[in-house]
Amino acid sequence: RRGERSSPAASAPGSAALRVCGLRVDRRTRSCTITPVPPRRLLRIAALQLQTPLLLAPIVAQTGPILASGRLLSAAAALLTAVVVALVVGWRTRDGLAALTAGLLFIASTYVFHTTPLARVNALALLFAVAGLACCLGRGWGWRAGVVLFFLLALYTKQTTVDAAGAGLLALALRDFKGSVVVGLVIAFLGA
């Protein structure tokens, strides 16, 4: 059949219906199908596969390949998220006690307390999403660039942060509709 090639790798155990970067290996039919993958899709796959390891590499270099290195990255991301929350509250209220309370309440929440020690990418995705939402509060194109950067990082880390990107774009649209359309189009073009 067109586009299919027989491959010895197709008979490897555990390779039934494996699809990576346009390559589909089916053990039952002993066939390997290669489909063209658009370059932007390859770039997105590379970004998804490299982002967390690039952030994790310096920690692993110091600690070795142990579970604690992932937990350290998750804990650092959770603490940085608390700092971002505290900075935003402090910036909006001009009250240091309210800012400190907001940051500490974030750390004390059940979501952070239970998921951060699991060494998943949830805390890192949350950090990027909250930083993107914080950039939505600023005015000017420098802040808009921060919105694009942080929302793209959040979307590349965990795709379920699309709700944060939507909320941020809605908040921008209520203040500056044309600016939010430009930011939304850039995020859609680079993130799609």
What report would you give on this structure?
The chain is 68% helix and 7% strand. By secondary structure, it is an alpha+beta fold. Strands 1-4-3-2 form a four-stranded antiparallel β-sheet, with no helix packed on it. Strand 2 and strand 3 (23-26) form a beta hairpin. Helix 6 (141-157) packs antiparallel against helix 7. The protein is globular, with a radius of gyration of 21 Å. The two termini are 31 Å apart. Mean pLDDT is 76; it is low at 1-21.
Q: Give the uncertain stretches in residue-range form.
A: 1-21
Overall average residue pLDDT: 76
Count the beta strands. Answer: 4
Tally of helical segments: 8
Tell me about the largest β-sheet: 4 strands, antiparallel
The largest beta-sheet arranges its strands as 1-4-3-2
